[in-house]
TrEMBL record, chains A, B, C:
Keywords: Apoplast, Secreted, Signal. Homodimer. This is Dirigent protein. Residues 1-21 form the signal peptide. InterPro entries: Allene_oxi_cyc_Dirigent, Dirigent. It is found in: Secreted, Extracellular space, Apoplast. Belongs to the plant dirigent protein family. It comes from Hevea brasiliensis. The keyword Protease does not apply. Its main location: secreted. Dirigent proteins impart stereoselectivity on the phenoxy radical-coupling reaction, yielding optically active lignans from two molecules of coniferyl alcohol in the biosynthesis of lignans, flavonolignans, and alkaloids and thus plays a central role in plant secondary metabolism. The keyword DNA repair does not apply.
């Protein structure tokens, strides 16, 4: 009988450890399993800055063109980008990767955007990609988008990224701070 | 001995509650943890309706333009939208949010589309965003796309959304009913 | 007392089975719950091949047009596609579905792309859709993107897909091999 009780106790330990690891995902605290902060820098092509530009308008509505952001809060402008990612807010810091994908302005009455893009990180600290999608009501101080997947160091990651506009200069340059909180880590 | 048995019993209750909460995700019934139904309304810009239009063609193939949907089942037309979301099928009901993102027609032989967009909900009942992606073979009565993430009230949500075309009027207006079933809720 | 012990034993069996099924998701081996291999075939419209073309440039930067892929490694070209999926590397094999969505070239210095698309599978073996997003640094031998969701047979799927360029012919035709590894299966 004592042996059986010991076995039962062992099972308990096993079950508890498993259950705890898993249940941490759903219950209560919502504490991230990984936190990261990056900045990325977007210089949009305006007809004169082809050397420096990191992005370009590639889609625009019938009433607009591709060298000047459209009226009505740029509604309909679709931009492809390849923006440097840095660890601090200095455009000239050594990049740790590239933010690549699309953003598009999608409202006439106010600035809002929609983003589908990836962080492709390639530094001593991080190798892999983080994939994002979501709405960016960019006049808000902070905006949350979804981390929808990842590869490499970020294999199967899910989470939420909070965007903050860290600089906005004359419709040519903007810098976003991105606070990434992963809640699913593998 | 009785005390130990009581402790064991307590552990059981603990383990069972944890396991149940978690196992509901993968096993058997696939019953959603949250169900929502919305409608959204798309009025595409056609050169004459700039006041009412909620969407616009911003990309089109070489053989097409941006005020008339292209031939060959609109293949290649890419549309940016900012569509009102309502709780019923009435375009003039008070919106509870906006559907924002892109859709694109992607087949020559028949109408099909691909969608990447967000519901940005801002009502007394729901605050937050739901992010979607997927193929929309729109001649089918119902089509399933993925809920790939969420923020705010829909933090970390995943699920499936079923689209139904509720109205389609002269290639200017369409209304989709969206039945959202979330299977991961946090 | 024996009856109670039997009940306890039953609970154990129940808990173990549940816990095991779940814990396999996060711990250790990262072994996929489903593996699939497909090929898809892209023939881009170049002004002369409208019958055969499965894709078309629909967005391009200010300095480019929509019948010739842009200079600077096609930076800014956005392509809508409806490509046949086959089980082997033969363009003329019976398709098992279609790959539908967008890709875009997003770097001036080297070929890289970003992808948002779905596999819409309709064969005796598979019915349903798999949704993908991610960066495709296409000069690398293998590139990982995310499986961000699925429907039908791939309900709620998540995973990683590894892309390999299996053929690349004169900037008109390319063929990708896609090794899909799902790590969340429902």
């Amino acid at each position: 009988m004592e042996a059986r009780r010991f076995t039962i106790a062992l099972f308990f330990v096993f079950l508890l450890s498993k259950s705890y690891a898993l249940s941490s995902r759903k219950d209560g605290a919502r504490s991230p399993c990984k936190k990261l902060v990056f900045y990325f820098h977007d210089i949009i092509y305006n007809g004169k800055n082809s050397k420096n530009a990191t992005s370009a308008i590639v889609g625009a509505p019938a009433w607009a063109n591709k060298t000047i952001l459209a009226g009505q809060n740029h509604f309909g402008d679709l931009v492809v980008f390849d923006d440097p990612i840095t660890l601090d807010n200095n455009l000239h810091s050594t990049p740790v990767g590239r933010a690549q994908g699309i953003y598009l302005y999608d409202k006439k009455e106010i600035f809002t955007a929609w983003l589908g893009f990836s962080f492709v990180l390639n530094s001593t600290e991080h190798k892999g990609s983080i994939n994002f999608a979501g709405a960016d009501p960019l006049m808000n101080k902070t905006r949350d988008i979804s981390v929808i997947g990842g590869t490499g160091d970020f294999f199967m990651a899910r989470g939420v990224a909070t965007l903050m506009t860290d600089a906005f200069e004359g419709e040519v340059y903007f810098r976003l701070r991105v606070d990434i909180n992963l809640y699913e880590c593998w």
